[in-house]
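Action item from last week, closing it out:
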Amino acid sequence: MTDIYLNGSLIGTADDAAKFVETVISGRREGKVTTLLNVYHNTREDTVKLWTERDRVRRPLIVVREGKSVLTDEHFNKLKTNEMKWSDLVRMGLIEYLDAAEEENAYVAMTPAEVTKRSTHLEIDPIAAFGICTSMVPYANFDPSSKLNRGQKTQKQAMGCYALNFLNRMDTAINLLHYPQIPIVKSFTQQIYGEALSSGQNVVIAIIDYEGYNMSDALIVNKASIDRGLWRSTYYRPYVTEKLRYPGGQIDDISMPQKDIQGYTLEKDYRFLGEDGIIAPEIDVSGGDVLVGKTSPPRFLGKLEAFSAAANVRKDTSVRVRYGERGVVNKVIITESEDGQVLIKVDVREYRKPEIGDKFSSRHGQKGVIGRVLPVEDMVFSASGMVPDVVFSPNGLPKRMTVGHLIEALGGKIGALAGRNLDGTLFQSEKVEDLRRELLSLGFRDDGTEVLHDGRSGRQYKAKIFVGNVYYMRLKHQVADKLQARARGPIALLTRQPTEGKAKEGGLRLGEMEKDCFVAHGSALLMKERFDSDKTIQWICEKCGSVAVFDSYRAKAYCLCGEKAKVEPVEMSYAFKLFLEELRAMHMRPKLILKDKY
C-alpha cells in the first residue's frame, strides 16, 4: 500500500500508486479536479504527495500524448484570430501548470523536434528557461551562463526613466538617465515589458587597446560624446523630518534655531533657512548645510533635572545635507504623517555627467569603469571620419567568452546603417551569416572590422579594428557616491579612534593586513603615523604595573597601590588602554613591565 499525503498530511493509501496518479492528472485535465492541484509520485519512498498550497512556483507546459503535442496548428490559428484565449487552453487541458515536485515525474522536450515517446510535456518556447531580465539579453545563447547572470543583474542596476511621474515622487536615492534610448538589437521580451523602460544608450564602440587606459575592463570615453549629452543623469536624494510630540506635552519646534541651544554649529550652516525654518527650492547646497531648522526638548529628564535651568536647554536636531554630497533643492513638501504630525520632505537633486571611476556595462555582463575621458582629437577615427564613443579592450573577450557582445556590435552596426531594429531573441534571433551578408551589401567588411587611424599621430593601424554599435548602460555605482577622504574629524567617544563610515566623516581603516604591507616595505615612519590616531600618554606604575592616576591640578602622578614606587609616562594607543580596563572588568589583572629603551 502506498501512502497518500495532501499538503503534508496523511489522508489515505492506494493499491496502485501509478494508476492513482494517472487518474488524478487526467481528472485535472478534464476539469474534474482543480487546476491548482499538483501530484508527485516518489517511487523511492513509495509515497504520493498532493499539493494545493499557496505560493508554489508553477510554470506552464504543453501536454504531450503518445509522442505528439496536443497543441495543434488549428489551436494556434484560433489564438491568432482571438477565437481562443490562454485560459481556454488551460481549461481544455492542453496546457497545464507544473510545480517543482510534479516536474520530477515529467520528461520535458525543449522543441517539437525533440519530442519522443517518453516525453510527457513540451516547452512553450526555450526562452521560458530564462527569467525576465535574462531573456532581454540579445544573442544570450552565445554567452556563458555566468556572464548571463551578471548581465541580467546589471540591467537591474542601470539608470533609466523608472516612472513617468518621478517629479511627483519622493523615492530614496534615485538616478534618472536624461536621454534613454531603445536598443537597436533587442529581444521580443523588451517589447512585452515596454520599450519605455529601456535604460541605456546605443554607442559606437571600437575594440582596441589604447595606451593601457582601458585595461582591466576599463573604458576610454570620447569627451565630445559626453559634451553632447551621453549618459547624463540626475541624482535625487530626499530628506525627511517629522515634528514629533513627546510625553508631558513637549513638542519639536520647526524654526531658525537660536545660538544658545545645544549642538548649534556655525552660523553659515543656517544661512539658507527662511523665517519658518525651512529652505526654499532652487538653492545650491552642500554637505553640512541645514535644510530644515529643528529643535527638540531635552529627553529622559529626572525629577530633579526638570527644574534645572541648565538641563532644560533644547537640542539642535536640524536636517542637514549629507557629508560629501551637494546639489540643488528640487522641491519642499509640507504634509502630515499617519499620526497627524507635521511631516516635511526636502528633495535635493544633483546633476551628474560621466567621470573617471563611474561604472558602465553592456547587457552581456561586460562591466567596467571609465579609465579615461579622452579629447576627441586624441581618439581613434575611421577613414570616413567616424570617431567611436567608447574604446573597449579586446582582452575582456577571450576569458569571458561573451560572443553575444560581438554579435550585438555587428547587428547594432547594421541597424544603425539600415535604420531598423534587429531581433536578437535567444534561440530565434537573426542568423549571423545573414548579418554578415547584409553588412557587406551596405559597403562594409562582413566581419565588422574597419581601417582606423591613431588620433594623436594620424598614422593608420596595420591591423583592421572591430567597430560596431553596442547598447551600454550607466549603472548606479558612481564614484561621486564612493569617494571618501579625511584629514581630521570626529572621533568615537569610547575608543577615541576616528568614526567609521562616510556619512559620519569617518576615516578609512588601516587594518592588520595593510599593516603587514607597510612592514614588508619597511616604511616604519609611515606606519607610526598611521597608528597615531588615538595616541595617548598614560602613567604606569613600575611596582605593580597598572595604569596610575595623573593629578592635572598638582601636575603629579601617583599609583593606587599605595607603594611609593616610580611612576613613568608611556606613549600608547588609547584602544590598548581601554583593552586593559576591559580585562580588569573581567577579573583579570594585566601587568605592564617597564624597561629602559637602551
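Closing note: DSSP finds 13 helices and 34 strands in the chain.
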